[in-house]
Write a structure and sequence with these properties.
The complex is a heterotetramer, with 2 copies of chain A and 2 copies of chain B. Chain A has 11 helices and 10 strands. Chain A is globular. Chain A is of the alpha+beta class. In chain A, the strands form 3 sheets. Chain A has a 4-stranded mixed sheet, covered by helices on one side. Chain B has a 4-stranded mixed sheet with strand order 1-4-5-8. Chain B has a 4-stranded antiparallel sheet with strand order 2-3-7-6, with no helix packed on it. In chain B, helix 5 runs antiparallel to helix 6 and helix 5 packs across helix 7. Classes of the chains: A alpha+beta, B alpha+beta. Chains in contact: A-B, A-C, A-D, B-C, B-D, C-D. At the A-B interface, strand 6, strand 9, helix 9, helix 10 and helix 11 of A face strand 9, helix 10, helix 11 and helix 12 of B. Chains B, D: It holds the Pfam family Acyl-CoA_dh_1.
Chain lengths: 374, 398, 374, 398
């Protein structure tokens, strides 16, 4: 039993934290959010150069990390800084699946990803809500390769992706786990993108596919990609939860500072006991969130039931703690906490949106019960 | 004890319903129900419709051109207009300044301003809050120095709702630094066109700019624009706040919000079933509905007491707390209900006549915006913390 | 719309409150709780003489009340004083059913009840939990009348009842609403009673029935008593909720007094803002409870769906508010709040037990959803 | 980062399990699991079994006859004994006084008292709290006045757990009224057989008498019973409280409670189905289980830090709050689970060998009692309000 970071991870954490503290400012985030790219190209380049993308991949895939705690270390810092780079989409989802399912044939592409190439993950669909196995998009073999038709929804960072890891059904019914395949589809003709900004920063797109790709665009076994998708989603959820934790830490810092500095009725509002106690309760919940992230990070490579039980437990707790932190931090700030200009605004929106990705607290509570009964 | 309306009250309700069926433009109804953005013209149109019927001065006595309704009638009107998705009545002239002028204004001020409010000639906004003061209203820093027959006003006001549309602002200003902070405050009416008045929008986390900062730099204000006596403004301000607190529970808004939530939960599918049939979600919805049923009765009890001539006391603090908790919970559930489509922020889709389509269902962005925007409910009008303090002091005597 | 009590009810409230304030003390309650009777015979006599039992019956049944607000006025005072007399069992359940189903033949008995005769309500059974229609006890017609066999559970005040209104199945399956009949069964041979004290005061019994009663012991239509039982249970639930409200009011008073008088760290603990705010929140919930009771009292005579929807809404809210009031009041008192000797102990136990009668908060939440969908 | 035990730790766990399989009497196991009443003899029997194995001084260094275990081993032992439904180790001599004597006691006191604690010759109880003081420990009013080679002690202690079984009591007494309240306190060992000591039971709302008032009237206490220096008792008292706070999270109790809850929810039927399959109830159980999973890890993080030699800080306040909230929620759900049978109070059914049958299932009364009894968790050992204050001060620096 050991809760210390390894020396390597400690170094990664320190340097990443320093880099982001130096590079990120509210103005810079505001600019990135309104830019056409929907993220900061400078920052992305910087992260790639620091090896942050490589930290998401195991050594045998050309990276130097890839364990749960590598994800949690990186994404806690991402959250702390409030940035919205395509790290999870490219490094964990599309990249992770390419590395796992693609074999030697995709090794170069994984290397490119580690170097900063952006690949989108076009999986979820308009009617799927949070059901990972809900895939209607079809892929049919024809003489030219695969013809893929369908609609993908909320494909984050789609506008800057050079290609997409697209999931499509080569068999089975809409909500079956069997019959889902993965394809690598280049951006461009046949891949229609309607992109838009997101609450909490960054951009995503509705993607309409009507495209033919060569036979070797199939990544992994035909109809058998689901297990790998679920594993990748578990890892992405771990990253997202760690990001939420980082957001909470920064929000906590802003709120405590505010309580210390802001005066009302003749004294700093942090001297009001009712607020002190609520702040203490918030801290207790953030500590719970930290432990929940540790639990998930320590089990992303466990057997399926154990892993997914932790996915759902942690995502549920993060969802609840997140809402508390959002609402209490705004309330303790008062009006200023609701303004777009003040640093809190961006962070609370981002933290709120965590509950709308990969399943909300209730979705995972129900799933936890189901997995526990099994 | 009788929980039902009298026959007269029922007849009145039917009259209001008939009026709304007849006169509330469908365009406006759809915009409000759909969470679309309302323009200044929208509000003005609705005010004019109400004024034509003599129903704009809801809280005003008949002698000033108001309805002369009692508290129950006002409640029925409020309930019906909210349910019918009418735009709200912009309260600054009608529910805030109006009553202050009627009680403390000069005859000349009443004769000049009150008809202009009803006719829509003036759009008023409120200059109470200042940066760094929040719920601590008595710490007013904006100064008004008398020079001949003018005051020279300097300072800054904030959280001025819809100030961008306003022709006039009523302000708390400091005219004396002696005594307690409450003692040197005066109540001043200022023309927004005066040189030195500058309005800057504040964008909130829902992406909208409904509030503003108002900067006042050497603004010349004629002394006849002083309401009541100099340095007595705190009395008027408190009177205004009591009036602001009618309908503090927001029962009508909560009921409309709950209906909207149920509609959305019936349309959204989770795991192949309508979300409304998911037991976890249904439990949360039922819980808040049950709370609302009780709160609506607390509200009616307070209204009945007011109609019987009792002054509203700390009950309004209880209604404020529970009312905001319930509305915010409904907002949170609605945001939860829309699922992943809470994420897209396609602001243009909310403009009437915009040809930008929303991403996902059209109710998604309004749901997210309402969640973020209504965090204000527990902050403004005396934060819920201030309300707890009032309860503790006046009811519990702790 | 009118929230004033009528003059008669105001008088009833005033005189009952005065009578109970004069008659009831913690010592007296402690004695009643440990007595064999499990209630105070003096108090019971006093209540009957004051006409409190009569207030539970409508005029055409020999009483002078019987509306929802009569129940709520009486039982709020009962709760305020923390007493545990067989008022609801006799006056609302057994008595109410005799009055409703029994017709002229039972008029004398109803008169006796109004005068103070105690009739138990033997309905719920060991496996029923909170399901009103769960009746296994059987009644079979034979040449001597009806032979009733079965087990009844938690029959409150059974030890002092001269007779029981017993429900038994003359047809249908265990959980059907059809086929339930009501019988008047005298205490004595064939009615075996194991009685025991209750958390929160009073006594109840497990009752084993193996008894034959004459043909005219059947009260109301054979197999058709359920609708009346449900109505009586709605009225008893209204009474119980009003009792809970009274308990909350007394607990609130004790707690506020304690906050004012008890000093710690050099000042009255009521000066600590964190406690002030929590006490304010408790008050808000008690106000909600009061409105919930008004809602139910105003709808006990409404159509079935409206009535039962209010039953479930109010009982759910009372269950939640009750738990908050119990836990917060103990917490704000500290150790003294946990002692049997101090007045709070009895009241919080009684209030806790409210959630275990006629269905707990969850039971009614589920039922509210079901009734709302119908 | 490694969430699993090392091989050595696993081996140790297996050793503890084997010991419990072998030595924990089934009679005791059943009593604890069934919520039956434990007698003094039960505790003494279990202490003796542990002592024979050398495992009674769990927190003691080997030099004093203790186990010398590190924090992780102590945690494993705690976890396993709780899961096996062993009686708890009565903490007053072993976890409270023992460590104080080792650190601040004289050689003579150590030689005399420590072996007697292990051998069960003395049953100690705690004389800290006083009526009207609660969490404000420094306001000690009980006085000890030096007269020759004795102190004369007068005052009253309260909340003295299992004082009815005790031979000895360690007390905080006031030996000086000068300076701050903390400065004039001394730490005194008193024989319960001394003339002037009177123990009166306090019955709690669960109907049990586990705590007592202890009255001290002109009690003569030899000066050699003073621990450390006069007027330095506050230092020792605080040291003791830090020790009391180990296992403050009560993870083992929570886990055992959750298992019991699941078992009961599997047996109870609601609407014809096992309660455990009711979605509302299942949701609440899952919620608390998820909270417990996280809290168990917070606990391990604190333990790992302690094993690495870091002093426990305000983290223990966070564990105290969350730990008690979780346990109390489990208690509330268990009470809810038993349904109407929460009502009967057939106390005699909890006595071993009593031929009184419980009413309803045998787990019902213990469930209700645990709910009421464990309200104490958030009150004693520094109330949760005091813990929030500590967090606010030491971590948040507000």
């Amino acid at each position: 039993m050991n809760f210390q970071l390894t020396e390597e991870r400690q170094m990664l954490q320190d340097s990443l934290r320093r880099y982001l503290a130096d590079s990120v400012s509210p103005e810079m985030l505001a600019q990135a959010t309104t830019s056409a790219a929907g993220h900061s190209e400078t920052l992305w380049k910087g992260l790639a150069e620091m090896g942050v993308i490589g930290a998401l991949f195991p050594e045998d895939k050309g990276g130097f990390g890839g364990a749960g705690f590598d994800l949690s270390v990186v994404f806690e810092e991402v959250g702390r800084a409030g940035v919205f780079e395509p790290l999870a989409e490219t490094g964990i989802l599309a990249g992770g699946l390419l590395a796992e399912l693609g074999g030697e044939a995709q090794a170069d592409r994984v290397e490119a990803i580690i170097g900063g190439a952006i690949i989108g993950f076009a999986h979820s669909e308009p009617g799927a809500r949070y059901d990972l196995e809900h895939v209607e998009t079809k892929a049919k073999k024809d003489s030219d390769g695969w013809r893929i038709t369908g609609r993908k929804s909320l494909v984050t960072h789609a506008g800057v992706a050079e290609a997409f890891l697209v999931t499509a059904r080569t068999g089975g019914e809409t909500t079956e786990t069997d019959g889902i395949s993965a394809f690598l589809v280049p951006a461009g003709e046949g891949v229609d993108i309607r992109d838009y900004p997101l609450n909490g920063g960054g951009r995503a797109a509705e993607v309409t596919l009507d495209v033919t790709v060569p036979a070797d665009a199939l990544i992994g076994p035909e109809g058998g990609a689901y297990a790998a998708i679920e594993r990748a989603a578990a890892r992405a959820t771990c990253a997202l939860c760690a990001e939420a934790l980082g957001l909470m830490e920064t929000i906590r810092g802003l709120t405590v500072d505010y309580l210390k500095n802001r005066k009302q009725f003749g004294q700093p509002i942090g001297k009001f006991q009712a607020l002190q106690h609520r702040m203490a309760d918030m801290l207790v919940e953030i500590e719970q969130a930290r432990s929940a992230v540790i639990n998930l990070a320590g089990h992303v490579d466990a057997d399926r039931t154990t892993r997914e039980r932790h996915v759902s437990a942690t995502k549920n707790l993060i969802g609840r703690a997140g809402r508390l932190v959002v609402e209490e931090s705004i309330q303790m700030h008062g009006g200023i906490g609701m303004t777009e200009e003040y640093a809190l605004g961006h962070l609370v929106k981002r933290l709120t949106m965590v509950d709308h990705r990969f399943g909300d607290a209730d979705h995972h509570l129900e799933r936890f019960i189901r997995l526990s009964a099994a | 004890m009788d929980l039902t309306y009298t026959d007269e009250q029922k007849a009145f309700r039917d009259e209001v319903r008939a009026f709304l069926d007849d006169k509330l433009p469908k365009r406006q109804r759809d915009k409000v129900a759909g969470g679309k953005r309302l323009t200044k013209a929208d509000y003005e149109e609705w005010h004019a419709i109400l004024n034509e019927r003599g129903w704009l001065g809801v809280t005003w006595p008949a002698e000033f051109g108001g309805t002369g309704w009692d508290a129950v009638q006002r409640h029925i009107f409020e309930e019906e207009t909210t349910r019918a998705h009418a735009p709200r009545i912009v309260p600054f002239g009608l529910n805030m300044l109006g009553p202050v002028l009627m009680k403390f204004g000069s005859k000349a001020q009443q004769d000049h301003y009150l008809p202009r409010i009803l006719n829509g000639d003036d759009w008023w906004c409120q200059g109470y809050s200042e940066p760094g003061a929040g719920s601590d209203l008595a710490s007013v820093k904006t100064t008004a120095v008398r020079e001949g027959d003018h005051y020279i006003v300097n300072g800054q006001k904030t959280w001025t709702t819809l100030g961008q549309y306003a022709d006039k602002i009523f302000c708390l200003v400091r005219t004396s630094k002696e005594g307690k902070p409450q003692q040197g405050i005066s109540f001043l009416l200022i023309d927004m066109d005066s040189p030195g008045v500058e309005v800057r929008p504040i964008v909130l986390i829902d992406g909208e700019a409904e509030v503003n900062e108002v900067w006042l730099s050497d603004v010349k204000v004629p002394v006849e624009n002083l309401v009541g006596e100099e340095n007595k403004g705190w009395t008027y301000a408190k009177y205004l706040l009591t009036h602001e607190r009618t309908n503090i529970a927001g029962v009508g808004f909560a009921q409309a919000g709950l209906e909207n939530l149920k509609r959305i939960a019936g349309l959204e599918k989770a795991g192949g079933r309508p979300l409304i049939e998911n037991p976890f979600f249904a439990a949360k919805m039922a819980q808040v509905e049950i709370d609302l049923m009780a709160m609506a009765t607390t509200n009616l009890r307070t209204i009945a007491a007011a109609a019987a001539g009792q002054a509203p006391g700390a009950e309004s603090s209880m209604l404020k707390i529970k009312g905001t908790v319930i509305r915010q919970e409904i907002n949170a559930l609605t945001r939860q209900a829309v699922g992943p489509f809470a994420m897209p922020f396609v602001s243009e889709a909310l403009d009437e006549g915009s040809n930008v389509e929303p991403v996902g269902p059209d109710y998604a962005l309004p749901a997210t915006q309402a969640y973020f925007n209504n965090r204000k409910l527990s902050i403004y009008g005396g934060s819920n913390e201030v309300q707890r303090q009032i309860i503790s002091k006046t009811i519990l005597e702790l």
